[in-house]
Amino acid sequence: MNRHELRRVVRTAVVGAVTRAPSAPLLAARRRYDHTLTTTDPAASPPALLRLARFRPVPPAVRTFTPPGRPDVRFVNAASGVTQWTYWLGMDDVARLGAGPRVWEALCARAAEVVEIGANIGFYTVPGAKVAGGVYRAYEPHPESASLLRANLAENGLDNVDVHEAAVVAGSEDFVDLTIPPAFDGATPGNATLVPEFSGGSVVRVAAEPMAAALGGCDLLKLDVEGLEAALFEAAWNDLVRLRPAIMVEVHDVNEQLRALLPGLVEASGGRAYAMRRASLASVRTEELGRGPLFERYGTWDYLLVPSGREHMVDALDIDTGAAQ
């Protein structure tokens, strides 16, 4: 049994146990947590009971909901891991290993043209679009995820997002195969990929759009494409240097190809790099992007590249300059 199969077995066992548990204590804990976030401590962490509850589907009677601590946004109930975790844990905690939605909101509020590649159900799209004053294009290739993305935007009365049901690619092909991990066959997946690294699962044929075409004239770009970031950067390098957008990108220590590119991209734009946290940024030395343990030092997978001339996009955020040596 490989690690993906083992993870699926363990997840199935946990989901089964949590699903059979009485709902009343879980719902009561969620109400208390929501009250804490909205009245006394917006940075509070969810109790252990809710961390277990995240494996439980949202109650079927719930059509839409506001996440704990975020009465200003609504999400539609659906068979989605992201939806499920957001219902029980709230948006800040779901993003605890990366940028909080409020950081993305601060960026969107100062951008003229936002491009989000890999929008999934709209976890970042909904709060970002609520404050965006300009163009907002969201790319999501998975049909069910794209449908739920549209539903979540509609639920919030947002008509300023142009949703493209397509995979952004480095080449010029018209269609590509999207691989769905086995554990997500029956739901909107949070980690569908164009890299067929999973055994089992399913494949969906989806439309494709070249990276250069997707960029348009954006000044803010977000990528979450499950390991294809380096290929997209290489394909549109000249456009990125010309447009100089601020870029939010997920960087894992083991993604050597991406890490090799990032220092050159920062230097080509005369900019700065930041680790993106729940409600702030931390300065990162350019050379750190290319080598050494990033997550161990900064505790986040999300990083922001801010070219020279785009500094105004981060002026509303707390920045820890002491992190850079």
Task: Describe the 3D structure.
The chain folds into 2 domains: 3-56, no CATH class; 101-323, 3-Layer(aba) Sandwich (Rossmann fold). Helices cover 38% and strands 19% of the residues. It contains 14 helices and 14 strands. The chain has helices spanning 3-20, 23-39, 48-53, 81-89, 91-94, 101-108, 125-131, 143-155, 211-215, 229-235, 237-243, 256-268, 286-290, 294-298, and strands spanning 64-65, 75-76, 113-117, 135-139, 161-164, 167-169, 175-180, 202-210, 220-223, 246-250, 272-276, 280-284, 302-306, 318-320. Helix 6 runs parallel beside helix 7 (125-131) and helix 10 packs parallel to helix 12. The mean pLDDT is 91.
Brief rundown of the structure:
The chain is an alpha/beta fold and 325 residues long.
Distance between the termini: 45 Å
CATH topology call of the largest domain: Rossmann fold
Q: How many individual helices?
A: 14
Give, in spatial order, the strands making up the sheet with the most strands: 5-4-3-9-10-13-11-12-14
Rounded mean pLDDT is: 91
User: What number of domains?
Assistant: 2
Shape: globular
How much helicity do the residues have?
25-40%
Strand-residue proportion: 15-25%
Q: Cα-atom Rg, whole angstroms? A: 19 Å
